[in-house]
Amino acid sequence: MSLITVLSAGTAALLAAVAAALVYRDAKAVGVDLGSPLLWAAFVVVTSGISAITVFLVPDAPLPGVLVIAALGPLLYLLERDDSMHGDGPADPTRLPSDGDEPERPDE
């Protein structure tokens, strides 16, 4: 292995650990509905690990695909976080979520 490969792997591992720590801290503060903070942090580490293994085992793997796998953990956490904070009300297809709790408006 070259020095660049070792430095890249170390940097990727450090970034995955920082992302997992941030997800754990935020999940504990928000109180996500699905899973526990430790489970979400582990999911971030697993998706980052899968992308790193893909890079090492398949050197010709397309970089966009590897980045999608790496971003999958934090992105799914953000979706669950948003659902935990805003998702208990019934859906209304005639209004945007940013409209708030205004009474029914007549159609224009």
Instruction: Please tell me what the overall shape is.
Output: elongated
Q: Main β-sheet: number of strands, strand sense, barrel status?
A: none
Q: How many β-strands, per DSSP?
A: 0
DSSP helix fraction: 55-70%
How much beta, percentage-wise? under 5%
**Which regions have little confidence, pLDDT < 50, spanning 5+ residues?**
none
In short:
The chain is mainly alpha-helical and 108 residues long. It is 68% helix and 0% strand. The protein is elongated and about 60 Å long.
What does this structure look like?
This protein has about 110 residues and is an all-alpha fold. The chain has one domain. Helices cover about 70% and strands about 0% of the residues. It is built from three helices and no strands. It is elongated. The termini are far apart. The mean pLDDT is about 85.
Describe the structure using short key phrases.
single chain; 0% strand; 3 helices; mainly alpha; 108 residues
